[in-house]
């Protein structure tokens, strides 16, 4: 079956959304940088998480023209490293949205 795989990443400084077809062709590679105020050094997790939640609808809107095939699967980055217990709150934005989307679409 022809279709697309979506991938979400909400790590520390960029909200990202990609779409790839079954042949590995990248149909979309969308990114929005998180805003760090001048003079600040980095972002607090709660601020970054809030920005990710605000960025995701814009990226999904920008993805619409690329959705010319059904979505077959949805992936996401869940943690900063593969080590057990590795966790940062910012990853929950992409994890929760991707998991919810997969449930609604009934795809892995």
Question: Can you describe this structure?
Answer:
The chain is α+β, with helices and mostly antiparallel strands. It has a single domain, classed as Nucleotidyltransferase, domain 5, CATH 3.30.420.40. The chain is 31% helix and 27% strand. The chain is built from two helices and four strands; from the N terminus they run βββαβα. It has helices at residues 45-63, 91-105; strands at 4-10, 14-21, 26-33, 71-76. Strands 3-2-1-4 form a four-stranded mixed beta sheet, with helices on one face. Helix 1 packs parallel to helix 2 (91-105). The chain is globular. 21% of the residues are buried. The model has no long low-confidence stretch (mean pLDDT 96).
Would you count the extended β strands for me?
A: 4
Largest sheet: 4 strands, mixed
If helices are DSSP runs of H or I spanning 4 or more residues, what is the number of helices?
Answer: 2
Helix content: 25-40%
Q: CATH H-level name... which superfamily?
A: ATPase, nucleotide binding domain
Average pLDDT, all residues: 96
Structural class: alpha+beta
Q: Give the termini separation.
A: 15 Å
Q: Which fold name corresponds to the CATH topology?
A: Nucleotidyltransferase, domain 5
From the 3D coordinates, which CATH architecture would you assign? 2-Layer Sandwich
Radius of gyration: 14 Å
How many structurally independent domains? Answer: 1
Order of H and E elements: EEEHEH
The CATH class is Alpha Beta
**Overall spatial form:** globular
- Give the strand line-up of the largest sheet: 3-2-1-4
């Amino acid at each position: 079956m022809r279709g697309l795989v979506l991938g979400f990443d909400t790590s520390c400084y960029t909200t990202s959304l990609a779409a790839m077809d079954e042949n590995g062709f990248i149909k979309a590679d969308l990114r929005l940088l998180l805003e760090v105020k001048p003079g600040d050094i980095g972002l607090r997790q709660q601020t970054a998480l809030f920005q990710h939640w605000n960025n995701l609808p814009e990226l999904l809107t920008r993805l619409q023209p690329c959705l010319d095939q059904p979505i077959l699967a949805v992936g996401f980055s869940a943690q900063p490293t593969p080590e057990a217990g590795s966790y940062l709150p910012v990853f929950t934005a992409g994890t929760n949205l991707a998991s919810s989307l997969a449930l609604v679409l009934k795809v892995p």
